[in-house]
Amino acid sequence: MNAFNSGSSSPIHTAPTQISIMDVFFPGFTGITASMQQLLTGNLNSYAHLMCMCGMFLFLGRYAYRYLTELVEAYFKYKKKPLRFSPWNGSFFFVYKNHLLRFQCVAKETKEEISISCIGGSSQILRALLSDCRAEYLKLIQRKTTVFEHHDGEWRKAKARDIRPISTVIMDEDEKMAVLKDIEDFLDERARGWYARRGIPYRRGFLLYGPPGTGKSSFSLSVAGRFELDIYVLNLSSIDDNRLSSLFAQLPPHCVILLEDIDAASTAETEDSETTENTDQAAVGPSQKSKSQGNVSLSALLNALDGVSSQEGRLLIMTTNHIERLDDALIRPGRVDRKVLFQLADKKMSSCLFCGLGRILKGFHVIGAISPLSGQQPPFPSSRI
Questions:
Q1: Quick one: which H or E segment has residue 234?
Q2: What is the pLDDT of residue 50?
Q3: Do residues 133 and 232 both lie within one domain?
Q4: 237 in any annotated domain
Q5: Is the residue at 230 inside a domain?
C-alpha cells in the first residue's frame, strides 16, 4: 500500500509567490518596501544602511531641486522678458479635431503671409479653428487695452496694457463725467442710425489741451479701456502725407485714434510756408516738402480727418500743449466736437492724488495731513506725484 502510494505519487510543486498589485504598476515596489522596513528597524549592516540613505537623498533631491527651481523662477519672473514663438518660413502639417491641416508661412519684404488649408471641399473645420483662435486671443487680452503703433506704413500691435481705471485720472469731475457721457452716447448702437438719418458723418472728435504732464495721454488710455476699444497712437512728426492717408484708411470701424502733439502739424505748415516765401521755391509742392521733411501738411491732415475717404465710426482724440498754435480750421466744430482743458493740480486735485496714493500704501495714515500739505503747494503737473 505504501509502495503503491510512493510509486504513484507525483512530485510536490511549491505555490508561486503572489504578486502584489503595486508591483504591477511599480516594479520592485515590494523589495523597496522591505528594504525600507529593515532600514528603519536597523537590521541592515552599516554599508547597506549608507547605500539606502544615499539612494533616498538622490531620489528625493531631484524633486526638491525641481521645486526650488520653479519657486525661484516664479519669484523672479517679473525681471525676465517673456519669449514669443512663431512659425518661420515653410510649411508643416498638424491635426485639429481629427482633421489634417497644413500651415504655411511665407516672409515677404515687410510682412508675412500665412495660409491654412485642409483636405476636402468644406471650410467648416477652418472656421472652427479660427473661432477657437479668436476665443483664445480674447481670453488673453481680457481686461487689457491693446495699443497699436505705426511701422513702415502699417499698424502693428505694440503692447497690451492693463486697463487703467478712469477714477485714477485726476481732473475736473464734472468735465470727466460729461466727456464719458458724450462718448457713451456716441458708441450707442442707435447712434449710427441717428447720424445716418440726418446726413452727419458718424465721427466724434475731442481736443485735450493743457500744460505738459496733466494727464491728457493717461485719460485717452483710460477712455479706451473703459469702453473696451483698441487705441491707435499716431505720431505726426514721423510720417508724410501719403502714409497719413494710408494709415487712416486702415483703421477699424470702432477704435480710438490718438494724435499726440497735434500742434506739430500747424507748426510744420507755417514753417514750410515761411521757407517757401524766403527762398522763392514756388514750384515745390506741399506734398514734396512734407515728404522731404518727414512732416504732415495741414491740408493732408484735414482731409484725413473728415475728407471724402475718411473712416467713420472712430473716436478721435487730439492732444496739445499749445492750443493757441492750432489753426482755426483744425479745431472748428465738426472736426473737434468738444475741447477739454487739463489744468495744473490745484488744492482739491492734489488732495485726491495724495489720497489715492495713501490708499495704495496700506498701513500709512496720511489722510489727516493731506489738506494742510496740499494748501501749501503751488499748482503743479499731476505727473510729478
A1: strand 231-234
A2: 60
A3: no
A4: yes
A5: yes
DSSP, residue by residue, 323-366 = GGGS-TTTSSTTT-SEEEE-PPB-HHHHHHHHHHHHHHSTT---
How confident is the model over 224-255, as pLDDT tens digits?
A: 999 989 999 998 888 888 888 889 888 888 89
Task: Identify the residue whose cell numbers are 464734472.
Answer: 174
Please indicate, yes or no, if residue 12 is contained in any of the structural domains. Answer: no
Which of 40 and 141 is assigned the larger pLDDT?
141
Is 176 within 8 Å of 206 (Cβ atoms)? no
Residues 6+ apart with CB under 8 A from 246: 153
Residue 263: strand, helix, or coil: helix
Domain range spanning residue 113? Answer: 90-138
- Cα–Cα distance for residue pair 226/224, rounded to 1 Å: 6
CB atoms near residue 327 (< 10 Å):
16
Is residue 219 predicted with pLDDT exceeding 90? yes
Which residues are CB-neighbours of 376 under 8 A, at least 6 positions away? none
Which residue do the cell numbers 510512493 mark? Answer: 6
d(CA 152, CA 110): 8
CA dist 3 to 6, 10, 47, 137, 170, Å? 5, 13, 54, 89, 113
Which residues 6+ apart lie within 8 Å of 103 measured at CB?
87, 91, 92, 93, 94, 114, 115, 116
Q: Virtual CA dihedral for 112, 113, 116, 122, nearest 10 degrees?
A: 150
The count of structural domains within the chain is 4
Residue 313 · residue 253 · CB < 8 Å:
yes
Residue 267 inside a domain? The answer is yes
